[in-house]
Amino acid sequence: MGATIDIGTDAHGTPVPIDVEELLATRLLVQGNSGSGKSHLLRRLLEQSAGLVQQVVIDPEGDFTSLADHFDHVVIEGANYSPREIEALAGRIRQHRASVVLALEELEVEQQIRCAAQFLTALFDAPREHWYPALVVVDEAQMFAPSAAGEMAEDTRRMTLSAMTNLMCRGRKRGLAGIVATQRLAKLAKNVAAEASNFLMGRTFLDIDMQRAADLLGMDRKQAERIRDLQRGHFLGLGPAVSRRPVAVHIGSVKSGGRNGASALTPLPQADAEEMGALLHGGLAEEAAEPVRTPAPRPPAPDLDTVAEAIAAKGDSAPDDTQEHPRPVSAGSVDDVLAAMLAEEGASFRQASALFRDFATRCRERGVPSAHIDMPAFRRLFAFASAGVARLDDGQRTAVERMAQDVPEDVLAPYLAIVVAAAEGRRAPDEDTLARVYGTASPGRIRRLLEHLEKCGLIAVHEDFGGERTITVPGIEAVAA
């Protein structure tokens, strides 16, 4: 056994351990009707493993935000950030190994689904050097991986199914261990549920859900009746990280609490019908005559850099990193940062992901706002900078941007280098210049590139019998004018 935690006790009071290292490799599916104790189980699992592994919680109801009161979790309110900021935060979460709760309760259902899908996709797409082990807990997983389209838009359904499938099917190699919890197995996409090797099944009553749970636990139809009789907080567990044979588990206690309404009975007020009627009707006309009260304005969202600093402080283990640092004073612009990067030898030969990380670091050091720039936007900005578009006047730059609007990112830099040369009245760049801008040392690749650009109608290449090559650019007249 590797690093183990105590999830609860069996029927004899013996502790039931979960091997966290095995869980990272084999994933977990939790199922149970509302009130069966799923959230309590997830909370116990998160609390017990908080000091062992990074945790990321997708929380549609805001039930897990109280983890921040007891552990080093950063709460991210999804409603406060744009899609690009959510993706940027996901990248920083993986980089700094921060444990976070993505709270989505203030969003509409479809907005919750899209926000979670973009967040999970950004976690999945993190660069290889940030593939640290992490538990990714998705509560109410039937929302994010539905078995049927329901009422959500088709593009939203495809987006969220892709994100959840990547998490459960391909996340292991990237260090992401999916833990999904659902009320109804029948409503959860089968390709998502099938990738889990560990199961904790709570009380359920519908035959179709009991049968699917029994199939996953290797139980026959008669044994499946046990699932209907389970008490709240009791689950049947099976899997390499839990037990090789089905085991009954009574989930242990937790420190943090959810925000669910009280389910226990509370004494009714001691008032007869006459007194209660007076309380209900007293001053009713005056209250109804008052103007409608507008809700208090939402407090301003925390600045993205402020949240990033919190993530870095809680994710890094070095004690010096947890101290507060003054915000850097802005020194330059995005163009200045790009120019400094291009001034270094071999910049265009580096991978785009490494360049983007270097760019984000330089912007942070100089205090240059860059949260609005994601990877695709950076690649286009870098292509414009490496081609020297900044040397053109404002009118020419506008025309060049219009010409390059639909040019693919992977060939944008050499295309712009040709356009800039034509706009300045110079000869077309030679193969060495184009190779340097394109980030290759292969002349053959440049020749294939020119052929590709010509087939796309972006340039026209003429070569005479002496081998002299001339390149013309359709639409260059607008730039020259």
From TrEMBL:
GO terms for molecular function: ATP binding. SUPFAM superfamilies: P-loop containing nucleoside triphosphate hydrolases (SSF52540). SMART domains: AAA. The keyword Cell membrane does not apply. It comes from the Bacteria. PANTHER family: HELICASE MJ1565-RELATED. This is ATP-binding protein.
